[in-house]
Amino acid sequence: MREDGLVLRNSFHVTANRLEVTVLASAYKSHFCPRRIACLQWSFSSNMKMEGVGDVINGRANEVAKTPQPSPKEIGREFVRQYYTMLSERPQDVFRFYSHESYFVHDTDQPVQGQQKIQKAIERLAFIDCKARIYTVSGTATMNNGLVIQVCGELSIGDNPGRRFLQTFILCPQTPKKYYVHNDVFQWLDRAFGDAVIQSQKS
After folding, report:
1. In the structure, what pLDDT confidence band is assigned to residue 67 with cuts at 50, 70 and 90?
2. If we measure between CA atoms, which residue out of 20, 166, 184, 173 comes closest to residue 93?
3. How buried is residue 80: exposed, middle or buried, by Cβ count under 10 Å (0-12/13-18/19+)?
4. Quick one: which of 36, 30, 45, 29 has its CA closest to 11?
5. Which domain holds residue 113?
6. What global pTM score does this model have?
7. Which of 9, 104, 183, 192 has the lowest CB atom count within 10 Å?
8. What's the rounded Cα separation, in Å, for the pair 172 and 146?
9. How many domains does the chain have?
């Protein structure tokens, strides 16, 4: 939260049965989040340069700071926070991050494409009482204004102990400030390194 009250946040909009991450700027300190929309915010440092733009509130012109474009890492961190929050609180809605063009790969399973197939794949994984601990988030821009987000963390399901994982997302823009998950590749690290040990022993 800046001292001037400007809030920059990401919110997820449900459009045509799809959840999209949108970068929004608001001149109000408080904001309303519909029940089905995960909505979080983050603050920028006060030394960032802001350009003033005209705005009219209650019939009066006001100067409102224009926020700079968030970096891929900043967008990635907000996306990750909201994605894993939804995975924990409403796993049945996680499929809304994806579209009919999206690809989803979980560990050693075969890739699936399309929102409906991804929904069924997530249901089979049974993310019940799921908790995530995130260690690192890396983000970079890619072709066609997309973003690559890599997450390293620990995931526990139910009473089972946490397992370390690596997950890579490719976010594609629908509009200049709206993204959806085009690719999602998830890997359990214990399985990956366990398979590597088995292969080395065989050789």
Report:
1. low
2. 20
3. buried
4. 36
5. 95-197
6. 0.66
7. 192
8. 5
9. 1
